[in-house]
Amino acid sequence: MFLEDITLTFIAPCIADPEKIRLIAEVSTDISGVMPYLNAVMKNATYNRKGPSFTFMKEFRLVNLYPGKITMAKALNTTDAWQVLNWIKDMINDVYEKRDSIVPNYELRSKPTALQIYGWLPRKNCKECGEVTCLSFAVKLLLGEKSLGGCRLLFTPEYAEQRKTMLEIVAALGYETVEGLDSKTGYRTQ
Amino acid sequence: MGIYLDNAATSYPKPEAVYRAVDRFMREIGASSGRGAYRQALLADKVVFSAREALGKLFGIRDASRIVFTSNATESLNLAVKGLLKAGDHVVASSMEHNAVWRPLKRLEAERGIEITVAPCAKDGSLRPEDVIKAIRPNTRLVVMTHASNVTGTLLPVGEVGAAARDRGVLFLVDAAQTAGTCPIDAGTLGIDLLAFTGHKGLFGPTGTGGLYIREGVDLLPFKEGGTGGESILEHQPDHLPDRFEAGTLNISGIAGLLAGVDFILTEGIDRIRGKEKELTGHFLRALEIIPGIEVYGPKDPEKQVGVVSLNISGVMAQDVAYVLDEVYGVMVRSGLHCAPMAHRTIGTIDRGTVRFGIGYFNTIEEIDTMVQALAEIAGKTLTWK
Ligand SMILES: Cc1ncc(COP(=O)(O)O)c(C=O)c1O
Ligand code: SF4
Predict the structure, then answer these.
(1) Which ligand is closest in space to the CA of residue B77?
(2) Are residues A19 and A80 both part of a single domain?
(3) Which positions in chain B have a beta carbon within 8 angstroms of at least one beta carbon in chain A?
């Protein structure tokens, strides 16, 4: 088996939504190699070749795959988290098994839609970004007319999980990430 | 050490892995699941999750979160019945039910005004599906029946009744206390909406473990609220499973053992386990036929029953047979009504009870032979005393 084991190493309530949980899990095998194959078979995922990282939603849960770990936010509880982790493990192993018949895709497979981006924004319509609604901000972000840093709320601790996902997506889109941000934490450096 | 033939009460011995799993858990992990972010707690969590998954595999349940842990089948049955039934609801139950089904129903009859119809079983404990179907009415909410009787071992037609209940939009609760781990059970194919099982019998777990499978779409009211680890901020018990029904710290050391027990079953194979049960039971039943003065209850056919055999020796009280078997021959069995008076009314032994033999996976043909020899001696003596 390609990926033998996934070990939960961290679990905490989601910051924005304390009814849900976020977590980090270590993978027993480096999974960067399967990402282009996952990218070829999964719809609505975002592959960032440079990271590398692979980001997608499993229903309402935010999932980020990295070479040695998986992060997830908005899981219902640990049972739910384990179920999704097992599903990810099976999917990775399945794609790995079939890799000879899959044409790997190293590009961003499909641009996320404005609505998807909207889902990851704070959805407060606070207008701080200079847009009337978060949705219009999302549209401009996709067009490359706005930078992520324009949404101040997203860079408050409350939106840590969404921020991480958004940073992955913006990077995968090939846009500048955000000026003046620490590349690791996503917080403003000053 | 004597011969243990009370596996219908609780299985003994357990597979070696079960003892080791409990010991290892308590020594090396020992943390509470769902309640901490440190490694040990996450390991504890993994144990609980793996147990859910293993049980899901055994019972053909894809979504393991629909299996909630309880302390035994009794708690599961109480949760199902009391969480579901409201005033004016009608229930159909078989006449072989254990008190774990019957008493909660009687309480709801008195307190909530539910109505109960008992579908009569034959003298060997068997049930014709049409007798259940006949009893279904427009206000029937639930059909509940045991998968196999703990008195006669008789297997009840869960598949047929499940299909009929499903066709009529009636929920179906199965008490699998005597069959979980010894007979194949596929909740989906059998049309089971609620499956109550206990961990300490056929599943080889420690006492104090058990669970209830709740099919998606079936909503029950929990009867306890409290801490669930996650979501402490909510004022109400969380809605999603399994947390909705698992307030309070789980019996994780027990669940660690249960996991080892279920893994053992999955490795051996349920068909092989059932096969051995049939072989031992068949051997016992054939031997009993040739001993005069013994009345055997139930279908007397290993295909139609689990490894539970009830009998009486003419002229001897059941508890005396059990006592002599233990004192003189070192054979451990049980006598009396086995918490199922309704079943004894059905088979006509309410006044005297029965001696019950609970055959398990670790019993051997030699042990059965020793016991048959003992029974022949007891029966022979009493016959000559007359
Ligand atoms: C048919 C049946 N139902 C329910 C139970 C209750 O099981 P427990 O005592 O584990 O709750 C038993 C066993 O005692 C049983 O045989
Ligand atoms: S700043 Fe962020 S939250 Fe406010 S309107 Fe713009 S996108 Fe929405």
Answers:
(1) 1
(2) yes
(3) 33-34, 37, 39, 42, 45-46, 48-49, 52-53, 63-65, 228-234, 238, 240-243
Whether A11 is covered by a domain: the verdict is yes
Tens digits of per-residue pLDDT, B320-352? 999 999 999 999 999 998 999 999 999 999 999
Q: Does A15 touch chain B (CB under 8 A)?
A: no
Task: Give the pLDDT confidence of B186-213 residue by residue, as tens digits.
Answer: 999 999 999 999 999 999 999 999 999 9
- Which of the listed residues A101, A129, A156 is the one where a domain comes to its end? A101
Q: Which domain holds residue A142?
A: 114-173
Residue B13 pLDDT exceeds 60: yes
Q: Are B72 and B199 in contact (CB under 8 A)?
A: yes
Residue A106 CA to ligand 2 centre (angstroms): 31
Instruction: Tell me if A109 is assigned to some domain.
Output: no
Rounded Cα distance between A23 and B325, Å, is: 57
Q: If you average pLDDT over residues A49-55, what whole number do you get?
A: 88
Distance from CA of B244 to the nearest CA of A (A): 11
**For residue A178, what pLDDT is reported?**
54
Same domain flag for A75 and A24:
yes
- Residues A11 and A97 grouped into a single domain: yes
Rounded to whole angstroms, how far apart are CA atoms B169 and B164?
Answer: 9
Q: What is the CB-side half-sphere exposure of residue B243 using CA atoms within 13 A?
A: 25
Does ipTM come in above 0.90? no
- Residues of chain A contacting B255 with CB distance shorter than 8 Å: none
Residue A77's domain is classified under what CATH number?
3.30.310.10
pLDDT at B230: 56
Are residue A30 and residue A79 in the same domain, yes or no? Answer: yes
Q: Which of A51, A67, A101 lies at the terminal end of a domain, its last residue?
A: A101
Find how far residue B366's CA is from the centre of its chain.
27
Same domain, A73 and A13: yes
Which numbered ligand comes closest to the C-alpha of A137? 2
Name the residue at shortest CA distance from atom 12 of ligand 1. B177
Question: Residue B339 catalytic?
Answer: yes
Tell me the CATH architecture of domain B3-12+269-378.
Alpha-Beta Complex (3.90)
Other Cβ atoms within 10 Å of A178 Cβ, number: 22
How far apart are the CA of B48 and the nearest CA of chain A, in angstroms?
A: 9
Q: Does one domain contain both A119 and A92?
A: no
Which residues of chain B are within 8 Å of residue A19 when distances are taken between CB atoms?
231, 233-234, 238
- With CA atoms as reference, the chain A residue closest to B53 would be A83
Beta-carbon-side half-sphere exposure of residue A178 (alpha carbons within 13 Å): 27
Q: Which CATH architecture has domain B16-268?
A: 3-Layer(aba) Sandwich (3.40)
Query: Best of A115, A118, A120, A121 to mutate for ligand 2, by most ligand atoms within 8 A of CB?
Result: A121
Q: Is residue A187 part of a domain?
A: no
What residue ranges do the domains of chain B occupy?
Answer: 3-12+269-378, 16-268
Which pLDDT band holds residue A44 (cuts at 50, 70, 90)? Answer: confident
pLDDT at A188: 45
pLDDT at B384 over 60: no
If asked whether residues A97 and A119 sit together in one domain, one would say: no
Phi, psi at B283, each rounded to 5°: -60, -45
Query: Could you give the CA distance from residue A150 to residue A156 in angstroms, rounded to a whole number?
Result: 12
Chain A interface test: which of B53, B62, B231 (most A C-beta within 10 Å): B231
Ligand nearest to the CA of B206: 1
